[in-house]
Every structure is written in structure tokens, then in C-alpha cells.
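Entry 14. Structure prediction run on the chain below.
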Amino acid sequence: MKRAASNKIQQLQSWIRGIDSAMLTTEDRLGNLRSRPMVALEEMHDDALWFFSEASSHKVDDIHGHHAVNLAYADVANGRFISVSGRARVIRDRAQMREFWSSKLKAWFPKGADDPELVLLRVEIGEAEMWQSPDREIAVRLEIDNASQNAHEHLTFA
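Output returned:
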């Protein structure tokens, strides 16, 4: 059974490899969903997805209140779309931060891995789905219903 899970984790790793960011969706204490961009690490560690965050951010508060999260990855150029559901935890292990640190994080966290405000978010994977566009092109069309003044966005795979 563990081998099957490991194969699935490797498949997920191959799906998200090369995608530089993900949208992390959390639930706040009022039940509202919030999505934020996150810098994706190069590799998975411990069969989990890891992200850096500031300890004082609202997403950390959300995770403390409701551990369920969703990550959405999009590679529009190659027509790959991935959704990962799981449970997140806040980790304050400075040694792990140094191990996972990469130079691309410096733009978001200029004080580096030793910043006392820095934490890691560990997402334990529950489910993952991927969609692949057959011809790797996606078109987005915005339709406006003039009668009701409502905008409707439709994704059309070309």
C-alpha cells in the first residue's frame, strides 16, 4: 500500500515540477475562502508540499483555525492545471527553513531563512487532480450580460 502511495506522490511531483507558483486557498474564521499566491519549492519533501510564509500573515491564522487547504497550480503554456487538497500545519523549524531555502525566495523574504518572522507551511496531501488540455492552448473569453450588467467568465479549451 505504501508503494502505491509513493507512486502517486511521484506522479504529483512530476505534474507540478517546473511550476513556480501556486494559489493557496484557506478558510478564515468567518468561513470565507481566501486565495493567495505562494512561491513553490523546487521539490517535495517528506511526501508533503512546503511553502514559506510570514508568521503574522492572515493565512497562518487561517491555518491555525482550519487546517484544510487547497493549492491550485497552473501551467498555461503547457496546458496543465493541478488542484491539491490537504491539511496544512505551521512549522517553525529553523534548520528545515535553511534546508529548503532557495535564492528565488529572497524577493519575497529579503531577510532570508534566519528571519524570526519566517515560518514554513507543510501541506499533507489528501487528494490531487490534474487536467491536461489536448492541444496545450487555452482561450479565455469574458462575456458581459448587458441586461443584468453581470460579467461572466468562461474558460474555453481550444
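The radius of gyration is 18 Å.
Filed with the rest of this week's runs.
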